[in-house]
Amino acid sequence: MDYYLKHKKPVIAGTILLAAVLCFIYYFFNPVAVSAFYVKQQDYVPTLLLSGEVISEFDTALSTQNTAIVSECPFKKGDTVKKGQVVVKLDDRQALIARDQARQEVEMTQARIVRTGTVDLQAAILTSVQADLEAQQAQRHDERIDILAGANAVSLQEVEQADQDLKLALEKARSAKAALEALQPRGVDLQILQHELLQRRLALADKELVLEQHKLLAPHDGVILELYAQPGELLQAGSKAALLASTRQNRIKIQPDQRYNALMAINNQAQVWLPSDARSKWPATVVFVEPSGNADQGSFTAELSLEQNVPELYPGRLVSVQVFGSPIIQGIIIPELYLSAYEGKTGVWLAGKQGCHFAELQLGIRTPDGIVVLNGLKEGDIVLKAGKYKEGLRVAPKIKGFDDNAE
Q1: Which of 159, 288, 300, 387 might form a disulfide with 293, Cβ 3.0–4.6 angstroms?
Q2: Longest pairwise C-alpha distance within the chain
Q3: What is d(CA 353, CA 275) in angstroms, rounded to the nearest whole number?
Q4: What region does 84 belong to: left with phi over 0, alpha with psi -120 to 50, or beta?
Q5: CA pair distance 288, 72, nearest whole angstrom
Q6: What is the rounded distance in angstroms from the CA atom of residue 133 to the CA atom of residue 141?
Q7: CA atoms within 13 A on the CB side of 173
């Protein structure tokens, strides 16, 4: 016991050294068994999985053309409407009164034209006939007076009176004839009334248009994206009342990372599905790619067009998207579970004769089978499943097939 106490530190140090030697011998001659696979090149179709949002192919803003109070909003945000249905109704009582007054003025003018063309015309005809008869009688009377005057049978005063009566009768007949002509279909009075009727009808059409403008109708089938008006609210002329999205054909908006710009070529194929139901997928095509990305976010915007109209995919709904690129010949793909981080670098651990070592990788896009490796691996390398390794650690790779890497 005294010997142990006197040599305690050397004994402990020797024990630790012995344990270290035993561990070294164990790990050197008994390497750690690790799942691994051989790197090999293969053909693949690059794809990108990301989320998207259903948007309308085009939106229509409904605005007021008159200042009025909102009286009714039959629908709410998210409702589907048909073309011609009232989305927002404004208080139209004043417009209705103005329309009715204009309609009454049209009817009154029409009645005046009818009266002018019938009663007034008949009276003018009778007056003209009577005036002509009176003019003829005055003409004959004047001729008799002239004969009598030649025989000195009448006075000069009677001759002058006969001439005056004749002139008055002729003027009366001319006036009656002019009045009759004015009432004819091409007469002045009737033309004035017809022109007045046209003006009244134009005024009525204007009042009817103003009345119709108090009803904001859906210009096409669609979904109400936004409803800015509420009953009782005063809307000024030009105010936006609602935003209507077309349901004829929706699109999918996605915002991929700028690294995947090459994958978003126009006409590339894609699939779309609801996150809650991956069994039902709908085909789509890339139809728009933003010319320049968002430098702040490191992304850009692209749009997909659905090959069919899917009622379940209404504007505002979130979906899952998989975009397919052009086939790649002879590339290297590794499962994500084999990736490791070491000293701030991303890569994989490789098995070698001198133990395992870390290889930094340059990665590309993700695919359903894993991540594409652009640089850092070659065919025949043995990649170890991610774990806690250190440089030079001896391992016993347990080679598995590429399809078995999910273990």
Answers
A1: 300
A2: 195
A3: 46
A4: left
A5: 39
A6: 12
A7: 17
- Burial status of residue 321 (CB atoms within 10 A of its CB: 0-12, 13-18, 19 or more): buried
Number of helices followed by number of strands (H, E) in the chain: 6, 24
Average pLDDT, the chain: 80
**What pLDDT is recorded for position 407?**
42
Residue entry with tokens 């968002």:
294
CA distances from 335 to 103, 339, 403 (A): 79, 8, 9
Measure the CA–CA gap between 72 and 61, rounded to whole angstroms: 18
Q: Which of 155-159, 207-211, 212-216 has the lowest mean pLDDT?
A: 155-159
Q: d(Cα 43, Cα 133) in Å, to the nearest integer?
A: 115
pLDDT given for residue 403 in this prediction: 47
CA 157 – CA 31 distance, rounded (Å):
159
Q: Which among 339, 272, 369 has a CA at the least distance from the CA of 44? A: 369
Question: Which of 338, 393, 346 has its CA nearest to residue 38?
Answer: 338
What number is the average pLDDT over the span 138-148? 77
Rg value, the chain, Cα: 50
